[in-house]
Write a structure and sequence with these properties.
405 residues; 2 domains; twelve-stranded antiparallel β-barrel; two-stranded antiparallel ribbon; signal; DUF5723 domain-containing protein
């Protein structure tokens, strides 16, 4: 029995030694966040953009938004987004993002938003400020494919990953002469059958020594690989990798928001709920993108910016479009969106509209800065309307991906 246990341990050790030659960690950190994605801000009615561009996700991202007031006060709106299926770093390699197979779990997003401000046009009036919380969900039903440029960069990563593995294997084999001798001795003892007490002690000692030596050789080979030209070449390729998708896209969103009127959690009221679809053509970093929005919203106490008269509850239907024009290889993105809102209950409120000019700047490595200016929805029959003026900072975390499994 004892001999069988020792033999099993030896086989496991030898197998581990053999497999160690190919266990090279090629996890790289990527710049994946193509555009702001925040369904919680959207359902709260404070988003810089209502028509969101399709994008790859990081595991976690955070947003800070400062509304108008000459940008002199602290941010008054915060949001956090989690992609639950991306939290496990080993679940998907970068290769798994290439096709459509895993599009739905990879794009599934849960967003939580918080804001403490007054109604539109009176955001900074302390006596009118209330706390609102929003929960949003987003998933890509159809995801654009990688562009030819991104596919070529990925193929380069695969080639340089293999070069790095070859360096590791070469170094490991060159240094492993002593390891093979110990394994030969161990195999010889195993073939003898019944072992004396002295041979059994030698057998156990060799098992421990082989395990220790395997770890030492692995660490030495990794260190040699990390200092090689192949490793530097892989790092350079990873630094230039940018996820760019081109093609038709369809995203499904939903969410609801609660209003705590007295800033008291015991006085909660449904503020807004809805579902919407964003669809269109994503042009990547060099071509114009065109997107469209269809959205249903339920408004218990507000249809546009003002309070609903007579306690009547409203539902609205929004339809709109957005054009995005990239510049400087996608570093800057200029876009304009227009949305028409109609009230589903007739003869109560006139329709309204929203037009926003938006600029996005890529700060690099999953950080975005956006600025928006335009006219928001307004429930009055004036020609003025409320202005949208907000700056938004987005940072993504958890963008580490193995190149391939």
């Amino acid at each position: 029995m004892a001999k069988s246990i020792i033999a099993a341990l030896s086989l496991l050790t030898i197998a581990a030694a053999g497999q160690a030659q190919v266990k090279v960690d090629t996890t790289i950190k990527l710049d994946l966040l193509q555009a702001p994605v925040n369904p919680a801000f959207n359902i709260l009615g404070i988003s810089n953009t209502d028509i969101e561009r399709p994008t790859d996700l990081t595991s976690f991202s955070a947003s800070l938004q400062q509304a108008s007031n000459n940008f002199t006060s602290f941010p008054n709106s915060y949001a956090a987004q989690v992609a639950p299926f991306l939290l496990r770093k080993d679940k998907y390699s970068l290769a798994d993002f290439r096709g459509q197979k895993n599009a739905i779990p990879q794009s599934f997003l849960v967003s939580l938003g918080f804001t403490h401000q007054g109604p539109k046009g009176q955001e900074n009036v302390d006596s009118l400020k209330t706390t609102k919380l929003g929960l949003g969900l987003k998933v890509s039903l159809i995801r654009p494919n990688w562009s030819e440029h991104t596919s070529a960069l990925f193929d380069t990563l695969i080639q340089r990953q293999q070069r790095l593995k070859n360096v590791y294997t070469s170094v490991f084999e060159r240094m492993s002469g002593q390891l093979w001798k110990k394994q030969d001795t161990l195999s010889g003892l195993e073939r003898q059958g019944d072992l004396s007490d002295a041979d059994r002690a030698t057998f156990q000692r060799l098992v421990v020594e082989i395990g220790t030596l395997t770890t030492q050789l692995h660490n030495a080979a990794v260190q040699a690989a990390d200092s090689s030209a192949a490793f530097q070449s892989l790092k350079n390729a990873a630094a230039s990798f940018k996820s760019e998708r081109i093609g038709f896209a369809v995203d499904l969103n939903s969410g609801f928001a609660m209003n705590f009127r007295q800033n008291n959690f015991d006085d909660a009221q449904l503020y807004r709920g809805g579902v919407w679809i964003t669809a269109g053509f994503e042009g990547g970093n060099k071509r114009i993108s065109a997107l469209a929005l269809l959205r249903y919203l339920y408004h218990p106490d507000t249809a546009f910016a003002g309070n609903v008269p007579n306690g009547i509850q409203y539902s609205t239907f929004d339809a709109g479009g957005k054009l995005l024009v990239p510049a400087m290889e996608g570093k800057f993105v200029f876009n304009v969106e227009a949305i028409y809102r109609s009230v589903l209950k007739k003869n109560v409120l006139d329709p309204s509209w929203r037009v926003v000019l938006n600029t996005e700047y890529d700060l690099g490595l999953n950080k975005k800065l956006t600025f928006a200016f335009g006219r928001d929805f307004d429930g009055t029959v004036t020609k003025g309307g409320n202005l949208v003026a907000a700056i938004n900072f987005i940072a993504g975390f958890g963008s580490e991906r193995k190149i391939s499994k």
